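[audit] Reproducing an earlier prediction to check determinism. Same input, same settings, fresh worker. If the tokens differ from the archived copy the diff job will pick it up downstream; this log only records the rerun itself.
[audit] input (123 residues):
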Amino acid sequence: QLQLVESGGGLVQPGGSLRLSCAASGFTLDNYAIGWFRQAAGKEREGVSCISISGGSANYADFVEGRFAISRDNAKNTVYLQMYSLKPDDTAVYYCATVDYYRQCATTEYNAWGQGTQVTVSS
């Protein structure tokens, strides 16, 4: 069974940082591009970032404004989302998901999702 597990969320003050991790169980992440998404209470899920299979390409939503960095360590079967300069508007549940090809990052063709990790930015 393909399973993704996100971790690293928590409560952080505005301007703080967090690093989220997305680990795979039962399969290897290096066969997939990986997307990070988030969903705030009462809002629709939105894409945050996506990274190619090799890690050589990545894209970010406009609202990231250079504050986040996605990376992957295929040897550890893990993808990361480093978040800096966090704002209250970044409060959401963050999810990772697999997609077969990097060119599909902006589509709905994701095939496995994690359960999410809560990020709360508040003073």
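[audit] rerun output stored. Observation attached for the diff report: The mean pLDDT is 95.
[audit] end
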